[in-house]
Amino acid sequence: MPKGMELPLNVIIFVAVALLVLAAIGGFFFGFFNDDSVNNKKLFLEGCASLRAFHDCDHKEVNSISVEEANFGFVCGRSGFGDTAQCAKACGCYVPDGETGQSLSAVNAGSDSLYIYTRPGSV
To answer: String of b and e for 96-120 (b: at least 16 CB within 10 Å)?
Structure first.
């Protein structure tokens, strides 16, 4: 029985380590290892503090609170809450059981500006 080509064990290990390093570099490049949940938790806690301290736990104010240039309603939505009442309850605020909240903002505070460009002479 003829023997096929054999690779030395150290070459196989070298190639495996090189592929692992390339995959890790690619993961960092594409943002797979970016832990945005830590920042989201921090923003949620800051928004809750603002809701309790400055807005008297009024869940209708959730979408108007800005935390580090982020809309608190947007942060609540990313945290898994369905409306402003659920978000306020998670912050420790009292919301009557039958009361439903408003829908949460789907736009982050930094990206809700609308710019309209008109060509000169078109108006």
So the answer is: eeeeebeebbeeebeeeeeeeeeee
pLDDT tens digits, one per residue of 88-121: 999 999 999 888 888 887 766 555 444 444 556 5
Question: Which residue, 93, 109, 113, 110, is CA-closest to 101?
Answer: 93
Instruction: Kindly report the pTM of this predicted structure.
Output: 0.59
Angle subtended at Cα 83 by Cα 82 and Cα 85, rounded to the nearest 5 degrees: 125
- Judged on CB neighbours under 10 Å (0-12, 13-18, 19+), 84 is buried
Cα–Cα nearest to 112, from 77, 76, 70, 80 = 70
In this predicted model, what pLDDT tens digit does every residue of 39-97 receive, in sequence order?
889 999 999 999 999 999 999 999 999 998 889 999 999 899 999 999 999 999 999 98
Q: Which two tokens stand for residue 24?
A: 């890790």
